[in-house]
Known about the structure:
Layout: E1 2-7, E2 15-24, E3 29-33, E4 51-58, E5 67-70, E6 73-77, E7 82-91, E8 93-94, E9 100-102, E10 106-110, E11 117-118, E12 126-131, E13 137-140, E14 143-144, E15 149-152, H1 155-158, E16 162-166, E17 170-176, E18 179-187, H2 193-211, E19 218-225, E20 230-236, E21 239-245, H3 253-268, H4 295-312, H5 318-333, H6 343-348, H7 350-353, H8 366-382, H9 388-400, H10 408-416, H11 422-433, H12 440-449, E22 452-457, H13 462-467, E23 469-471, E24 477-480, E25 495-500, E26 505-512, E27 515-522, E28 531-536, H14 541-547
Parallel strand pairs: 1-12, 18-19, 19-21
Antiparallel strand pairs: 1-2, 2-7, 3-6, 3-11, 4-7, 5-6, 8-9, 9-10, 10-16, 12-15, 13-16, 14-15, 17-18, 20-21, 22-28, 23-24, 25-26, 26-27
Amino acid sequence: MIHYTISCPNPASQFLRIDLKFSCQAGENIRLQLPAWRAGRYQIANYAQNLRGLTAETQGGQAVSLQKITKDCWSLEVEETTAIHLSYDYWAGKMDAGSAWVDDEQVYVNLVNCCFEILGRSKEAFEVKLDLPNYPKQLLTLKQTGTSTWMAENYQLLADATVLAAKKVEQETYAIGNTRFHAWFHGEIHFDRTRFIDQLQAFSNRMIADFGSFPEEEYHFIFHLLPYPHYHGVEHRRGTVITFGPASSLAEEEAMEELVGISCHELYHAWNVCRIRPKEFLPYDFSKEAYTQAGLVLEGVTTYFGDLYLLKSGVYDLPTYLRHLEKIVQREAAHYGWKNASIEESSIDLWLDGYVAGIPDRKVNIYSRGALLSLCLDVILLQEGNSLAQVMKVMWENFGLPFKGYEVKDFEKLVSASVSNPKKITHFFDAFVRGKEDLYPVLEDCFSTLGIEIKKTLSENTLMHQAGIQLNGDQVIQQIHPDGKAYQHLMVHDQLLSLNSETPLWEVEVLRQGRKLKLNFELESGNYYPLLNLEMGTVTALRTTWMH
């Protein structure tokens, strides 16, 4: 067994002390690989930049030479059979749902950030010991074997685990079937805990009913309730970490809807991604990029169902659900990346710039675009007496339960097999998944089938609607509609100083990189960036089925 011990001699420094002990044979070439990324965030993170002071010695205390061979991989070789003791410091100074943080109140770390994989020995078991006596409330999302010890059957499970040790943590539990669910709260609680747990249990119940089983015997919701604005969630096989702030905002219903929404999204990942995975992710190779085209399934389906199960379970009523779906529709309608990149191409580009805005209209957002594609597929299936939930149950049975990787074509085949005219699904994937066609007309038809109408309105913001110019609060241009006349004259990041729209030509003064410019361009009466609202029309039988 390979042994890790985590301690924190000086919390004010924000450094963890990590000790790694393992045996090796005479002449064995050991390679120590620190992850460069983590599950759920397909972007190189270079965790090695947070590591310092790596040393190695034998069981007898003799120093062992370490050779760094890449930015995050080291090698060592010993002459005789012995045990090796590695020590190093890891900086835990980033608070989000996928990183690590240490202060006087808590030690929190996702082990994928800081635990080495010993290449060639990844299937060996790991023991993790927490030597953190000043933080008596201790949690690790692995199998507990002692007062402060836990075990992972292999490196993949170790890298998927989270540590939380704190002076004060609140806990709630509920059980569904053979699974025990825990909700851990670190920070100030400004909401009705009982109601929130009832909501967690409601959507958990409904998901389990649709999938037929839950992947784990124990699951942990870990909530960091922060005093400053924050919103982030990360999925794990045995739990999820969610950071949300400011905690005081959760006294309001709107903020609670966001918290329950991200909780539902992350729980859906317990099936989809944590177990139903593209073949490229089985197993995870954390040393380099793992390219996949499956963004539609990974995050699109999850985003769609993360909200829909709140409706199906009764946590949201229909107006509340539509209000949240409206935001996704509005976000997609305001961007034109679909003209330049498919969702499959944008999935690969997660590794390039998928988590930042990037250059204008270069790609699609796999979360929002994928959610609307999923809604359309669900409506098509519902019209045939099936549903996307049923397809995902088969994905669970065929790929999740046996833990066997899928390809996008496997998902497409299952959808095609659920309709009377498979060519309709082939055309849909050709046009909107592999292709770059406008989804809006299909989306509008799907909403109409559900008895929901997309209403377009224009606000009093004539600059946005007539000229296609979107500003922030500092009057800096954030976006220009590519079809507008302004696109030929103004630039993103120009600061608008003045505008005279009383003449046939718009007279605009902007500040551009320290230069003041006066520009004239033709007055337009366009309908750019309309505000989209989802309104309930006549109740249809399909809508009733969809909701329940």
